[in-house]
Amino acid sequence: MNKYWSNITNQIEPYVCGEQPQDKKYIKLNTNESPYGPSPKVIEAINKCTNDDLRLYPDPNCQRLKSAAAKYYNLKADQIFVGNGSDEVLAFSFLAFFNPDNPIIFPDISYSFYPVYGELYNINYKQIPLSEDFSITPEDYSCENGGVVIPNPNAPTGRYLEIKEIKKILDSNIEKVVIIDEAYIDFGGESAVSIVNDYPNLLVIQTMSKSRCLAGMRIGIAMGQKHLIDALERIKNSFNSYTVDRLAAAAGEAALLDKQYLKECTSKIINTRENVINQLKELDFDIIPSKTNFIFAKHRKVSGNELFMKLKEKAVLVRHFNKPRIKDYLRITIGSDHDMKMVIERLKEILS
Amino acid sequence: MNKYWSNITNQIEPYVCGEQPQDKKYIKLNTNESPYGPSPKVIEAINKCTNDDLRLYPDPNCQRLKSAAAKYYNLKADQIFVGNGSDEVLAFSFLAFFNPDNPIIFPDISYSFYPVYGELYNINYKQIPLSEDFSITPEDYSCENGGVVIPNPNAPTGRYLEIKEIKKILDSNIEKVVIIDEAYIDFGGESAVSIVNDYPNLLVIQTMSKSRCLAGMRIGIAMGQKHLIDALERIKNSFNSYTVDRLAAAAGEAALLDKQYLKECTSKIINTRENVINQLKELDFDIIPSKTNFIFAKHRKVSGNELFMKLKEKAVLVRHFNKPRIKDYLRITIGSDHDMKMVIERLKEILS
Which residues carry this modification: N6-(pyridoxal phosphate)lysine (chains A, B) (predicted)? Predict the structure, then answer.
């Protein structure tokens, strides 16, 4: 409490992101970054733009980046919105589509930023419990609501929902905006982008922080029919005309144009993931099926907190959420094969 | 109006930034960018960070950038906030310090983004008229209010208010946050940063887009006592954990460390400005005294709109605001000596 703070500042419980130690002494598997650097073409594009033109504002409309995204996703450029990471795109979306009084709905176990956006903008929300196995039941989302947010695959569980299930949620909420947050879609799922033109209520949000190896550059994208994108532009232009800087815009464009690199990186990560899952199972872990670049795993005997602390002592950072239902799970990012070999070794030491 | 839009999206009138043509056929003097590129040390710092580490999130706390700012401004690092341009810092500040019901106050002629932030967050505001000569009268800001925003120097007028006048506003609002928006302070004014430790209600906001030649990288800074910075961090961390990307953070740090380059650039611009003012006076312009990198000028015979259109036809972009009291003024950014020579020539052609 402070007399100079607004009511919101006094009341809000901010989001806490995964630890970002500024030294490099950890094997860092706590924020779902890629173990691989960005495409060489991204580096080249940034280098090319690092010149005196940085004195000039960026294109406020990010036209080149939008065109590259439109081409990649087979949409029109006016069906694309670009922001400073998918967190900013989500924050704008809450303000663009949801009203305070009609509660929006999202899963009880999901991205823990959603409730914070609700608090920030005073938008009521209701959390829909996941099933016992952490799956989403589409029928649960047909209740009266002011909007829907579904992460697919879900985080931190890693579980994926088939497009035909997503369609059920869209169909039963045709008058409300349904946000499908696809931060992890490139690791084995099918994107709902393919049905954007069928659903006037569908907004798909993606990020370049995971599969495109660009967490450091902050690029998020939203895709939907033009009237939804227009709403996001209205909010953005009432907040900050230029949220994507010149180098981020160039990086994002180059990343979208290099399809081959995306495919290589995600294939490697999927491959590593499946190997690690097998090894963890041998160590008595129960694992939620994952279509992401992380694994949500629970040991049959040792508590989540104990494993988290002991791994940290051994210089391995993973993510642990001290929350009901999931406190015995660890969320472990898929790193390089070498990183994962080290993690398995450390776990064997701890569990032996 | 659209049924998928929130009430705010339907109601708001977004800010319109100066035109950003993506070709280079204009002499561009409409958005107060620097005619000079950023410091060579900035370019070097960006190049050094353009590597595989872009796969990793930035430091969410921007510690290195904050330390450099603390050193430059003679403050502590916890008295510094960093954001994605001063527009984002302003947007966060409105939410962090102001409440909907108690109207905040700012000048009637000033940065046209302020009313938009008010609308975005449903914060009431009252605009205090500038005097006939466009100066700010500190006594006008001693009325009952929920907070104060003063741009100093003011934009688009260019007029500067002495620190002793700023102190009057701070003293008469000691229970309310007073934001001094110093986007243009480096072009001849004295910053209120020097009195941050004397006033628990003072927040100073600056940008690297103007004097530090980095509009393309989006770096804004706020300075104030720790309790004010904490409020901004709370709001930022409820919106987007990482608003400043790795390259922007490196660029900002390097820009702050190169004091000499800042001095050289601002001296050149001040010098050009004074020459241009003299030439415009000879062409029958009335000019508001400027401590910025732009001039606010009105011709004695020809209307603002006519001059704006004719200059545009001749490939010179300046800013014209079609608003009461200022519709006969042009806001002309100070470009290079060569740019300004061209502008004077074009004006002579138009006025002959």
Answer: 210
Residues of A in contact with B51 (CB under 8 A): 37, 43
Contact yes or no for A24/A200 (Cβ under 8 A)? no
Q: What is the structure's pLDDT at B36?
A: 98
Residue contact A97–B9, C-beta within 8 A: yes
- Model pLDDT, residue A64: 97
Q: What is the mean pLDDT of chain B?
A: 97
* The predicted structure's pLDDT at residue B22: 78
Choose the closest CB to B239 out of A35, A43, A91.
Answer: A91
Query: How far from A70 is each of A76, A211, B121, CA to CA, in Å?
Result: 5, 18, 32
| pLDDT tens digit sequence for B334-350 | 999 999 999 999 999 99
Q: Is B251 on the interface with A (CB under 8 A)?
A: yes
d(CA B294, CA B150): 18
Tally of domains in chain B: 2
In a domain, A10, yes or no: no
pLDDT value at B24 more than 90? no
Same domain, A135 and A90: yes
Q: Closest partner residue to B9 among A63, A85, A234, by Cβ?
A: A234
Note whether B207 and B297 are same-domain residues: no
Residues A252, A42: Cα–Cα separation, whole Å: 8
Q: Number of H helices and number of E strands within chain A? A: 11, 12
Q: Is residue A14 a part of any domain in this protein?
A: no
pLDDT over 80 at A24, yes or no: no
Query: What share of chain A in percent tops pLDDT 70?
Result: 100
Q: Is residue A91 part of a domain?
A: yes
Q: Out of A6, A52, A97, name the one closest to residue B4 (CB).
A: A97
Q: Give the residue from B57, B67, B120, B228 with the most A CB atoms within 10 Å of its CB, the best one to mutate.
A: B57
Q: What is the pLDDT of residues A325-343, one digit of tens each?
A: 999 999 999 999 999 999 9
- Residue B35 reports pLDDT greater than 90: yes
Specify the pLDDT at position A23: 78
Range of the domain at B324: 20-37+260-351
Which residues between 38 and 57 in chain B have a beta carbon less than 8 angstroms from any beta carbon of chain A?
38, 42-43, 46-47, 50-57
Strands B148-151 and B202-207: unpaired
Residues in B touching A39 (Cβ below 8 Å): none
Closest CA to A113 of A202, A204, A18: A18
Angstroms from B95 CA to nearest CA on chain A: 7
Residues in chain A closer than 8 A to B44 (CB atoms):
none
Instruction: Scan residues 110-129 of B and list those with Cβ closer than 8 Å to A.
Output: 116-117, 119-120
Nearest CA in chain A to B32: A56
Max CA pair span of chain B: 59
CB atoms inside a 10 Å sphere around CB B7: 12
